[in-house]
Amino acid sequence: MLTRNLNTFIHYLKNIDLRKRFTFMRLQFTGISFLLALAFYCPAFAQRSAAEYFEDGNTKAGTGDFNGAMQAYTTVISMNPDHAPSYFNRGLAKANLKDYRGAMGDYDRAIELNPKEALYYQSRGVSKSLQDDYRSAIDDYSKAIELNPEEPKAYYNRGVSYAKLKNHRNALVDLDHALSLNPDELAALYARGNCKQDLQEYAGSLADFTRVIELSPKRTGAYAGRGLAKLELGDYQGAAADFTRAIELSPNDSEYYNNRGLAKTKLEDFQGAILDYDKTIQLDAENYNAYYGRGFAKGKLNDPRGAIADLSKAIEVKNAYTGDPKKNAYIGKINKEKLDELRDQVQTNIKIDKLTNERAEAYYARAIAKSKVGELKGALADLTIAVELSPTYSNAYFSRAMIRSAAGDQMGAVLDFTSSIKLRSDYPEAYYLRGIVKNSLGEINDGCLDLSKAGELGYQQAYKVIGAYCN
After folding, report:
1. DSSP three-state, residue 45
2. 405-449, pLDDT tens digit by residue?
3. Could you tell me if 254 and 222 are in contact, meaning their C-beta atoms sit under 8 angstroms apart?
4. Which of 72, 90, 148, 241 would disulfide-bridge 118, Cβ 3.0–4.6 Å?
């Protein structure tokens, strides 16, 4: 049996909390090797047997001629419609041509013919992952693991899928398992380092990236990832050194300069930081983190006018929360009419709270009454006073978000829903409403994650919306 490795990769960027002023990290899915199945017996077709066409497909796939390979496997299938390996290999050929939907159709048929082959499920999972269908991909990886529990790539791919869904604990379990089966697998070490950073386990993250560097000293992202871990652990000199190495390996990546600028700022090397922020902006004129960092450094160097100019850019560039709040672009799957319908279906359960000396509760109750008679401006004014008097008043932020959304200020609504969630992390209605608003504004992935959290917290309506607008 001939075996050739034709690895298919997918990458994604993971944004760290922007308040930390560094944003670049990568994870990677391991590709499924192109499986060349055992030759099989078939009667002759014209002058060539099915086995010869099959081997021809394997040879063409091995040289990168996936169109030719696909045609060869199609010929085999016309001769033997029940040959699962030909459907599978044709699916791999389609996947290499980025026809992931077509590949899935072939994997489906291969699985129908041979439901006990783990690699078929794993390959279908990869095609689903490449279409961002991570939940369904996880089902396929789980089936592959059930059939072959000793295959580390299945745990790895499932772990990265969990990470994409921000289920970092489950991701870490799978990545640990993958590494227990293959301790020096670079992709798994790298992914686990990223996952640990998401879980704020920075010492563990640093150890993983260090091991990646030991195994592959020119792996740029590992230096960047370790630099981020060192920043969080307070080793600013070490962080700057790692970002310098990353820059040496990849001198046109703006984020490495930006992150080194942050490390220099922490070391109070403001002149050096400004040079790095200058380079960041030269490479990426819309990097608002760099304007923020440079503005801060200029302020420390007694250049207040320069600081104001840069900080103004930091506020204005690519900021959806500035400008006319009513000029929303409803570019998501949920249009404005559906947004209004879904929001208005949410029933808020208003309970009387003890009146404090500041009387924020009275402003809140009056705002609810005003909103019921259509006095939205008065209601917003009362709710604003309520949160000024009681900054931890979660229900007031929630109600103000509802009214802002009804008035067309969707960005303001998102901010208020976020405030209510920060104050009360188990607020299902806030996750639900923030989810549908984000979806309507085109932030579909984040919106669907909010809806998933609402469902997890018991708000069952969320799953109906997920079914209609997230899949």
Report:
1. strand
2. 998 899 999 999 999 999 999 999 999 999 999 999 888 888 988
3. no
4. 148
Q: Retrieve residue 373's tokens.
A: 């008679």
Q: What is the pLDDT of residues 126-137, one digit of tens each?
A: 999 998 899 999
Of the candidates 341, 344, 394, the residue with the CA atom closest to the CA atom of residue 371: 344
CB 294 within 8 Å of CB 274: yes
Report pLDDT for 325. Answer: 55
Residues 123, 88: contact at Cβ < 8 Å?
yes
pLDDT of residue 334: 83
Pairing between strand 26-29 and 44-45?
A: unpaired
Name 40's Cβ contacts closer than 8 Å, sequence gap at least 6.
50, 51, 54, 80, 83, 85
- Cα distances (angstroms) measured from residue 169 to each of 143, 225, 303, 310: 20, 19, 45, 39
Ramachandran region, residue 382 (left: φ > 0; alpha: ψ -120 to 50; beta: rest) = alpha
Among 34, 28, 112, residue whose Cα is nearest residue 73? 34
Q: What is 306-349 written as a DSSP string?
A: HHHHHHHHHHHTT-TTSS-TT-----SSS-HHHHHHHHHTPPP-
Residue for token pair 């063409």? 60
- Give me 363's structure tokens: 């402003």
Identify the H or E element spanning 59. helix 50-62
**Is the whole model's pTM more than 0.90, yes or no?**
no
For domain 336-469, give the CATH number.
1.25.40.10
Answer yes or no: is pLDDT of 6 > 80.
no
Fold exhibited by the domain 10-199: 1.25.40
* Per-residue DSSP letter, 18: G
Helix (H, G, I), strand (E, B) or coil at 94: helix
On the CB side of 108, CA atoms within 13 Å amount to: 7
Could you read off the pLDDT of 272-289 as tens digits, one per residue? 999 999 999 999 999 999
Length of the chain: 471
